[in-house]
Predict the structure.
Amino acid sequence: MGSNPDHIVSVTKGQDDQVTWIGRERVLQRAEAPEPLLVPPPEQQRSRGWMWTAGAVAALLLIAFVAWRLMAGSGKAQALLADRGGIPLVTIIVPGQQAVTMSVSFTGAIAARYDMPIANEGDTGRIVAVHVEAGDHVKRGQLLAQIDDSVVVQQVNRLAAALEQARAQAALSAAEYRRAQGVEAAGALSAEDIEKRRATAITDAANVKVVAAQLAEAEARLGRTRITAPVEGTVLTRHAEVGQIANPGGEALFRVASGGEVEMRGQIAEQDLAQVKTGQPATVYLTGVPQPFIGQVRLLGAIIDPQTRLGDIRIQLRPDPALRPGAFARAVVAVDAAQRPVLPQTAVMADSNGSYVLIVNPANKVERRPVRVSGTTEHGVIVAEGLIGSEHVVATAGGFLRDGETVTVAPSGGSTAAPAGSS
């Protein structure tokens, strides 16, 4: 077909509307139409993915190389600040000496000074009555418990009657022997009859002693059915119950503290045992009790345990209701008053070789000095051996320094002040 000429629309003069000529080759445009999202072809997408992957791998390689250069490039441990050219700045303290009270601390338990176990000493029997409780104060001879004595009482009664019978027979035999002796001169009885009567009198008299001994034995067994207090004191424990079978040599039925006296028993180290003396004052603290208890050293152990290197110690205390045997306690024994250097706790360090401090010598080099700590006060740690008080001791952060390392001492205005009483 032939091409048709463009259609021409005429416009009247004076009209303000714009006229658009639409040809066959012109496509009508829609207003406000959004442009479509351009999606690259698959080949271009794959190319860009390889580029991102290559860039990430290169960045990781760069980071690994830098880390290797910083951490493992030299093949040595990380150097200290001093090895990098910087000299540490330290604060020193001159402790001097001050009057301190030397003391020895240890832990232990409250115990009765004389703890007497009371058990059944007689024959096996059933307990029929218990008359005391734990905590009661008893007097010497007071009845604690009663064991069934129905059988023993009958034995005592039988032997008592037998004793009366034996005494009567002995009296009759003695009278007959006396009459025989009276007629011996007249010859009314033969010598044989007189001798028989004498033997009978002697036998009956001996029988009286035998029966009396048997009666005493039965009475002793009867007495052992009554469990009594051997001394005056306080009942600590009671293990006797009505109906229980009490065996001789078995578990103690009662434990009595003689006189109510109590003490603290503990163990102290071998080196401290040499400093403690009997009669020295001691202060005992109980868990949960605010007020301390005053006492004194009563006894020191004669031997030292070769395994633990500890020795026994006992502190005498005044009786008090709060001092219950078995309670955990801590004691402090005042050993002596002396002049000792006192350092802050930050200046004293410890390792497998023991306690030590770091001092700065006149050449501004760090030196390790072993010390022995004997206690603590409100001002710091008491040094018993290793320092005389005039040394320049590193006050803090000594763990970051090495023996022989050169340091710079901080000006005196920034140094730590010595404890009160030091020079």
